[in-house]
Amino acid sequence: MNVKMLTLGPLQTNCYILYQQGKALIVDPANDGEHIIKELDALKLEPVAVLLTHAHFDHIGALESVRENYQIPVYIHETESEWLTNPSLNGSQLFGAGDVICQEAENDLKEGNLRIDDFQLEVRHIPGHSPGGVSFIFHQHHIIIGGDSLFRQAIGRTDLPGGSMEALLENIEEKLFTLPGTYTVYPGHGPSTTIEEEKQENPFFN
Question: What domains are there in the chain, each with its CATH number?
Fold first, then answer.
């Protein structure tokens, strides 16, 4: 499986295109839907779904343009299903980013294994940055799409509504650090890292 990272929008949010055999998953269509669509077209890919690690406005800015263009379903954790339609919940009002209002997602995510077309993944609920934060784990490829939970030598901020430093640290240790050290973490912001590197060098755990 291939991973294409697009860094988009004023907060430099990472959108990921995961693809194999001509099919693609779009994770966190952060901003600039036209750019995302051009990348997919250039790679000659057929998207089959949009996955959201959480519903903060900087991760969903291009959701509607991508969903409408490809007519594909959206998946989000059930805890944040209402955030898509509510700019006071998704943070766009708080940050003065203009009201970001999306349609409801077609599917609620829960912890456990998930199959979408030919993609097999595990969903792990990792609240702390936000109540419905999740990571998508592709065990066959040793890949984690981590959202705003674990960054390279950092963690997601916990001072936003619904955030909890205690919960985030606990969930990272229990649900990410228990994975093999060779797994690559692709975060919501910044460069990729590995589980082993973060266990050894992340100052929040050392």
Answer: 2-205 (3.60.15.10)
